[in-house]
Design a protein that fits this description.
Radius of gyration of chain A: 20 Å
Largest interface: B-C, 22 and 28 residues
Shape of chain A: globular
Largest sheet of chain C: 5 strands, parallel
Structural class of chain A: alpha/beta
Chains: A alpha/beta, B alpha/beta, C alpha/beta
Strand order of the largest sheet of chain C: 7-6-5-8-9
Oligomer: heterotrimer
Helix content of chain A: 25-40%
Helix content of chain C: 25-40%
Number of helices of chain A: 13
Distance between the termini of chain C: 18 Å
Largest sheet of chain A: 8 strands, mixed
Number of strands of chain A: 18
Order of helices and strands of chain C: HEHEHEHEHEHEEHEHHEHH
Number of helices of chain C: 11
Radius of gyration of chain C: 19 Å
């Protein structure tokens, strides 16, 4: 029995925001109320001045196992998630072998169960081998535990195949998470804008993302299937989402902390930690992303946690792998939106708890008696300096090393068990 | 605190004497060329040339030498050494070259100047004329013609030459370095 | 003014004064190349390594001659003949070289930012001899040197740069350098070869060669890489030439004493006709001569001062 005392409980799913105590028994929440007696509890956590919230849910993480264990394992990735305040993560299918069949899905589930410290929900590939040619065995993957499908890393170029995938996925209520990129337009490593004029790096225009976003939503609308666009980065995409959502609410989207924190100016020094796909965009795009978060156009904040080993990043910008190791900085970076007046705490937390839960159709992200005790205790004011060498993740590839953030996760509880205690 | 070692009249007398000595030692002005070492050596060389012109009725060939590229201490200098133009519009081969500088101190500048001239050709001989020899040589180099000699100069002292063409006055000064 | 930089990675970060210092210094070094004894002892005992990941004869030879004329020792490394071909990373190559204590490393690489990588981790001075499409600073400096030599001043010049601008490090470095002076720069190419928002660099844009050369003091033709023909940038080299090859007739529209420049090597008939390349307005060979002087100046300034 764990008793959390006097924390400010913010639960967007039940619209709660008050100072209360939370009692956890076994794996569920037993009671939420004022002045719960300490007598039954084995452990009391003093959360005065801190915020208690549902554990964060990340709809876009790369755990790299099986196949790339030197970059990250399910164990280290989930430990990083726990540090960052995430109690559930969706892991993408671009492993080796690709998660396009139930054996790989089962492998991941098994590993997560025995070695992981937070909940792991695999996203199966949309197409076999991520090749974009044939549908994968979504039904069996769903049975094995997959909650979503995604060819992340790529788009499904063949429109007919994508249409079939959307229809078929509906059968199993799998979320379809779309990485939108027209690969014929996107042969570059940075955003096509002012920064690329100076750096001479091959550049990707915004329309490489926007064209695919339009297409994916048009097809989804046509077959009346839900579709989720991940890691949106451009002003144009925000505009498209705003327009589409008004006539087709089954279209949803997420963005990542780096897209509302850094612009393409960060790439001018050729720091490979700023190389991501889609690339960091112009300051105007960053402002539009923030506006999209503010007015509700963007439903979810995901991390696109992409850990890489030193060797993959310590090379020329053109050659370096894309990605930022983001699980442990996501909350701190996102709280800057609250400090900056873009969102209030409840609004921010909704995008990281109840909204992801709804997308994935999982019974988490909300706190109420009887629900799973997945929650976090964090400070929204504590200042700390990012130290990549202290990461639980194997991936030290972050452009935020040495940056001071305001707000930090302190305790993570999954199913009533404390998996991270930083108090 | 400054002490005047040579005033303007003394400088004029020295230049006149040096001009005569050059002509005496070389038995005339045949095959003679003057090269001034940047920066004040240039003006002194011009004055010597003009003086010899008065005496002999001949204008000697005249050149400007910048020795920056031949210094042995580039990496040790704190400030950037600006490389300026060398302009020697005559052929130095088989000539007697009189190098002219304002102050002779360690001898390294003269060594660099000799190297520079040798890269331009093969003079018959090179002689050295200086306005002030302040001793403390670090290389075995001696002047052929000297305006004045002050070997009692210590390391805390500095000999500076001021010339009308550049500094608005003619004087050789001894001052304490701070 | 003093030269304070450890490396020369581009012209974008140079001030007008720094560029003038480089050009003035190059002036003096040019005389060395015209004498009988083409050597001065200035960099005696210094080691200069040229590390070329992209093939180049003229730039590498130019650097080598420059270093040797300053009495430095030179070593040339080109990728195919080295451990790089065995898969060694750039950083490892750099660190291995540094253990042998070179004073200067001149690097040419196909990827932007490669010289910056080395400059950040090595104590040696790094000279960028071309990094992908990013910059080629010594080329721009010798171009400016040539312009100043022929036109006496850089301020007030009207310059046209013609060719595959988006992929040209020569264009970028020249634009950055020229805009430190009071110049008017016009870039001319089909729209497919111009980066969007190029005007943000302070240049004008033209699509027709006739329009671009009108009234110009300097016309700089860039090399069209044969690999670009038949791609999405231009349908064929043949069509490109018919529209953008500089002919004698074009020169009538330019200023009376226009100078024609080209970084080399020339594709005669593709971007420049024989008559223009060999004609009285061409200063292409001056550029090559000036290249040695400018590189001597760069090596000299980077080697001086506190190490």
């Amino acid at each position: 029995m764990i008793l959390i005392k006097k924390g400010r409980l913010i639960d967007p799913g039940t619209r709660r925001d008050e100072i209360v105590d939370v009692l956890i028994r076994g794996g569920t929440i037993a009671k939420i109320g004022k002045d719960i007696a300490k007598t039954d509890a084995d452990q009391v956590i003093d959360a005065e001045g801190l915020i208690v919230a549902p554990g964060l849910i990340d709809v876009h993480t790369h755990l790299r196992e099986p196949g790339y264990e030197w970059k990250e394992t399910i164990r280290t990735g989930t430990m990083a998630a726990a540090q960052g305040g995430f109690t559930s993560v969706v892991c993408m299918a671009n492993t080796d072998p690709v998660n396009d069949n139930k054996s790989v899905t089962e492998y991941i589930m098994k590993k997560a169960h025995s070695e992981g410290v937070v909940r792991v929900f695999p996203a199966g590939a949309i197409t076999r081998g991520l090749k974009g040619e044939e549908l994968s065995e979504m039904g069996e993957m769903h049975q094995a535990g997959a909650v979503a499908i995604s060819d992340d890393g790529r788009s499904v170029k063949n429109s007919r195949l994508f249409l079939k995938a959307l229809e078929y996925a509906r059968l199993f209520r799998l979320a379809v998470i779309c990485h939108c990129e027209d690969e014929d337009l996107s042969g570059g490593v940075v955003h096509e804008g002012s920064a690329s004029l100076f750096s001479g790096l091959d550049a990707v225009p915004s329309i490489a993302e926007e064209i695919m976003v339009r297409r994916d939503i048009a097809i989804a609308r046509y077959v009346d299937s839900p579709v989720h666009i991940t890691h949106i980065s451009t002003r144009g995409t925000v505009g498209i989402m705003r327009e589409e959502k008004s006539r087709y609410p089954k279209a949803t989207c997420d963005t990542c902390p780096h897209y509302f924190t850094l612009s393409d100016e960060a790439t001018l020094g050729y720091d490979t930690n700023t190389k991501v796909n889609p690339p960091l965009r112009s300051p105007e795009d960053v402002a539009a992303i923030k506006e999209g978060l503010r007015d509700g156009t963007i439903d979810i904040i995901a991390t696109d946690h992409a850990p890489h080993d030193h060797v993959s990043k310590d090379v020329e910008f053109d050659t370096a792998s894309c990605g930022i190791s983001g699980l442990e900085t996501a909350l701190g970076l996102s709280l800057a939106l609250v400090h900056g007046g873009v969102l209030d705490l409840a609004g921010l937390l909704a995008k990281m708890t109840v909204n992801p839960a709804r997308l994935l159709n999982v019974p988490y992200g909300v706190l109420a008696p009887g629900k799973a005790a997945d929650l976090i205790i964090f400070s929204d004011t504590a200042e700390w300096t990012v130290d990549k060498n202290a990461f639980a993740s194997k991936g030290r590839n972050t452009p935020f090393h040495g940056v001071t953030l305001k707000g930090r996760n302190l305790v993570t509880i999954v199913g009533g068990k404390i998996v991270y205690n930083g108090i | 605190m400054e002490r005047v070692l040579l005033d303007d009249k003394a400088i004029e007398r020295s230049i006149s004497r040096i001009a005569h000595e050059i002509l005496e030692k070389n038995q005339g002005s045949k095959n003679l060329g003057l090269i001034g070492i940047r920066t004040r050596g240039i003006f002194l060389a011009k004055r010597i040339r003009d003086k010899i012109g008065e005496i002999e009725g001949r204008v000697l060939p005249f050149g400007i030498l910048d020795i920056t590229m031949y210094r042995d201490d580039i990496a040790r200098m704190k400030a950037t050494l600006k490389v300026k133009k060398t302009d020697i519009p005559f052929d130095v081969n088989n000539m007697t070259i009189v190098l002219v500088d304002d102050v002779l101190y360690t001898g390294r500048t003269t060594r660099a100047a000799i190297d520079a001239i040798m890269d331009l050709g093969r003079p018959k001989r090179i002689q050295l004329a200086v306005l002030v020899d302040r001793g403390s040589r670090e290389l075995p180099i001696q002047p052929d013609y000297t305006g004045t000699r002050y070997s009692a100069v210590t390391e805390e002292e500095e000999v500076s030459v001021r010339l009308q063409e550049m500094d608005g006055q003619d004087a050789v000064l001894l001052s304490k370095t701070l | 003014m003093n030269w304070a930089r450890k490396d020369l990675l581009g012209t974008r970060e140079l001030s007008r004064e720094e560029i003038l210092l480089l050009l003035d210094t190059a002036d003096s070094f040019r005389d060395v190349s015209r004498r009988d004894i083409k050597k001065v002892p200035t960099l005696r005992g210094k080691t200069v390594i040229t590390l070329f990941y992209e093939p180049s004869t003229r730039t590498r030879v130019s650097f080598e001659i420059a270093a040797k004329r300053l009495s430095a020792d030179t070593i040339n490394i080109s990728t195919s003949s080295s451990s790089v071909a065995k898969g060694e990373t750039l950083k490892d190559t750099g660190r291995n070289l540094e253990s042998m204590r070179p004073d200067v490393i001149v690097i040419r690489h196909s990827m932007p930012g490669a010289p910056h990588m080395l400059a950040n981790i090595l104590d040696s001075s790094i000279i960028n001899a071309g990094d992908g499409s990013h910059e080629h600073p010594t080329q721009a400096l010798l171009d400016l040197f040539t312009m100043r030599e022929k036109k006496e001043t850089l301020d007030g010049l009207k310059v046209a740069i013609v060719g595959d601008i988006v992929h040209s490090r020569v264009a970028r470095s020249n634009i950055f350098a020229l805009k430190k002076f009071d110049t008017e720069v016009t870039c001319c190419a089909p729209p497919t070869m111009l980066p969007p928002r190029l005007e943000e660099l302070g240049v004008k844009v033209a699509h027709r060669l006739e329009e671009a050369v009108a009234g110009k003091d300097v016309i700089m033709m860039l090399r069209i890489q044969k690999e670009r023909g038949g791609t999405s940038s231009i349908p064929s080299i043949r069509e490109y030439s018919s529209l953008y090859c500089l002919q004698e007739a074009h020169l009538k529209e330019a200023r009376k004493n226009v100078i024609i420049m080209h970084p080399g090597p020339l594709n005669r008939g593709t971007e420049i006709s024989d008559e223009v390349a060999d004609g009285p307005y061409s200063v292409i060979l001056n550029q090559v001569e000036n290249g040695v002087a400018v590189r001597m100046a760069v090596l000299y300034l980077l080697s001086g001062g506190e190490g």
